[in-house]
Amino acid sequence: MTAITSPRIVLVTGGNRGIGLAIARAFKSAGDTVIVSHRTGSAPEGLEGVIMDVTDSESVSAGFKDIESRFGSVDILVANAGITKDGLSLRMSEEDFQDVVNTNLTGAFRTAQKVLSGMMKKKSGRVIFIGSVVGLLGSSGQVNYASTKSGLVGMARSFAREYGSRNITFNVIAPGFVETDMTSVLSDELRDKYVSQIPLGRFCTPEEVAGVAAFLASVEAGYITGAVIPVDGGLGMGH
To answer: Could you tell me the pTM of the whole model?
Structure first.
């Protein structure tokens, strides 16, 4: 088995805030070269940045050319970029459905596809998709989002079967409710309702998700592929 040597080249899509930023900082603290993709602006302090819109194939291609010219091929991809456009299915527009699919699912495919040639040459690589507990449980008002997160499981497992012989692993992390800007705006009543459904009785921290990502990229996790790792406090157990 070929090990990924340090410092590794790590790309975290949507890594400028929330879960993505926590994951990027975890790899940075391990001594890796960490690149975060962003559509505008600049990367957070201490991290490398690349302009990349995962909904645009040409932007993804240009972003990878930039990465490879500056750093070389990517050793670890964390496909984290995602959006929500919630609404009850009866009223959800096709545009809102397609926008979420194009970012969360097709965007993950675009970036995963781009890292394959470099990983195949090295006969080593790790791809980690950031899914969600709702991909397994479903969620009222999130038929688009839940569909994409469920789709990541099938995508990861199909990739895992195709490229396992090249020592490239593909796994999904499925967080539950996480302490981010998105959940900080919840009312106390709604927050209490969600917490009451979680056996551990609290929301997850971004750093707890980041710790699982770091493990899946480690030597110790070299025999794990096609797995869905829940980080949800027991919310989705049994699914």
So the answer is: 0.95
